[in-house]
């Protein structure tokens, strides 16, 4: 297998290659203003090397998810998972050598930095036997390794900069080769940029960035002006994996496309001034309708599902013990679905009675649940982590069978409650349905999985603002909690 790829050609039509083996040892820095073609360059690099080396893409704008369709990358939506799940996925990726795209476009910048840091640290901390070679491509690297504190929190900057420093300074011995792209070298931490030995410099206009780019390319400062004159998609390359002297490269074509494209000109509307005025002011005094209850953002796949896809490597045919395990799983799945459901509910109820179970992470609980099911020969096919969390919340509240007609209205109402708040909501609603007092803050805190009663107060305020609960405290200090959609309320007791 050839370890070199063609990244583009010179203005005279001569092909320019990148030696992937050398790149793994020496890393790459890409720089260019917005619109210079950085993302196009990264896409060309990823497409051409997809069959040679494992790839991990940190994608803050969601532009590289199209690699999944053409090259089989697993797309991980960073907004859909918690910290523990991201760490587990990062570890699985190194173990199973999966090529992935971590899409962070649904997160705020602080959350992007923390998510990427946890993900990179999990890969960095893999055991020695899993130090397989991998390209780690980080687009908009100045966001994750800023040269100075900005509008982000100091905590997010610290952990993100630490992860990027580990990747570029110490990642080589662990098989991780950083490929970082930035709009401005001046905004990128110097200790991160300094570890790259290969450079592809695109068009830039600010003097400070041009001078720094010229220094990295070994050019005299009076030659820095030519960096301003580079065309879109044209870069100056230098480094042991590219060329020993600066060379102009016109980046080649790509097969996949980005989600974001440069907008073109479209005709302006032809409406008259009066018509446009009417459109803008029509019903201006009417507020937009607000949904009755907030609905949590849909999750396309839970962490366990993605982890199983990575571990199973679905593109390969199962053989040997793996094939026997899948056959056994298929046979279990063919058992009576009603029996399977009843057995799973029983296991959830047993787990809910265990001391301090609410203080364990949902990922740990789900893993424990799947192990117990398999030990009893129960198929868990079709059950994901989200379904488990909601079923386990019902078990915590003592709802033995959530499908019982008695709980039908409560279950429909609970669809509008976030997963983490579901167990306390179920407990309060059941107390109201049974005409019993609402549990005190200490008990609700235990059910919520916290030792802070203040968090319970914030939770009740949140549920009340969204119309799910009505909390009433009389002059004697007694509290009752009503569930207006069910028409029930708890008895009043001291809060």
TrEMBL record:
Residues 323-339 have a biased composition (Basic and acidic residues). It comes from the Bacteria. The keyword Metal-binding does not apply. Keywords: ATP-binding, Nucleotide-binding. The keyword NAD does not apply. Residues 24-214 form the AAA+ ATPase domain. One of its GO terms (molecular function) is ATP binding. This is ATP-binding protein. It comes from Novosphingobium malaysiense. The lineage of its organism: Bacteria, Pseudomonadati, Pseudomonadota, Alphaproteobacteria, Sphingomonadales.
